[in-house]
Amino acid sequence: MLKLRHYxxxxxxxxxxxxxxxxxxxxxxxxxxxxxxTQWTSLMxxxxxxxxxxxxxxxxxxxxxxxxxxxxxxxxxxADAARKAGLKVIVGLHADPDFFSRxxxxxxxxxxxxxxxxxxxxxQAKAWNPVFQPDGWYISAEIDDLNWRNxxxxxxxxxxxxxxxxxxAALDTKPLYISSFFAGHMTPEGYSRMLxxxxxTGIQVWVQDGYGVDKLTPTERQRYLTASAGxxxxxxxxxxxxxxxxxxxxxxxxxxPLPTAAMKSQLAARSECNKDRLxxxxxxxxxxxxxxxxxx
Length: 296
Known about the structure:
Layout: H1 2-14, E1 22-26, H2 37-49, E2 54-57, E3 61-62, H3 69-84, E4 88-92, E5 94-95, H4 99-102, H5 107-128, E6 136-143, H6 151-169, E7 176-180, H7 188-199, E8 204-208, H8 218-229, E9 239-243, E10 245-247, E11 255-257, H9 260-267, E12 276-280
Parallel strand pairs: 1-2, 1-12, 2-4, 3-5, 4-6, 6-7, 7-8, 8-9, 9-12
Antiparallel strand pairs: 10-11
Helix pairs in contact: 5-6, 7-8
């Protein structure tokens, strides 16, 4: 009986649910360079004290931003400070500002484009790995529920991600993550099946909860989140990204932190099945107020 209890205890420790991530996503911007090293270190220490265990850099290059050696070193120092504060660090790769518009190309052009994206991600990882070995990698491209509905496009998506996972395995075996969002273009069940296809490539996928974007009603959003959690049977999603912002009116995206009550509710949210929970983003957190600018 003691041996059985010991075995069950070991299984519990090995369970991915026990080690569910409680992380925050940082979207690096050049204006963040106004934050002093002391301010940044204090912010990272506060995150750790508040129970966060992981910092996710959404990208380490956005178009041409952070493309030179000096800016890249600045990011590496910020990542190192997060780790010294007790946080795990997942490093985002190359982000193309035109990703969503480029998805509308012909199948042949899209195939070449996705190959170039993978090459850019691998270059970024190879540049970072010798100087800062992360706890995982994050693919900055976000998977929506509109552009990949067509079976042929879906096949390209899955092949791209499968090839990416295989080529990253030659670099190291750390987890590889990507995020996805929904806006009502697929049924919740269809969206869940797409997430399951992504998971089959060996890449972990986080689902954005859509709270801040506010495109769907709370009931509609919950249907997607419940279906994507896959608590009964398959487990399509690895966790949920909780949005901590409120979108402001206008043709271009702008946002502000949630009001106090809504912020408290979002920070208390838990992914279904107790999977990874991520919060977007660092600059909207109350603890970042006065340190990390959120106004454009």
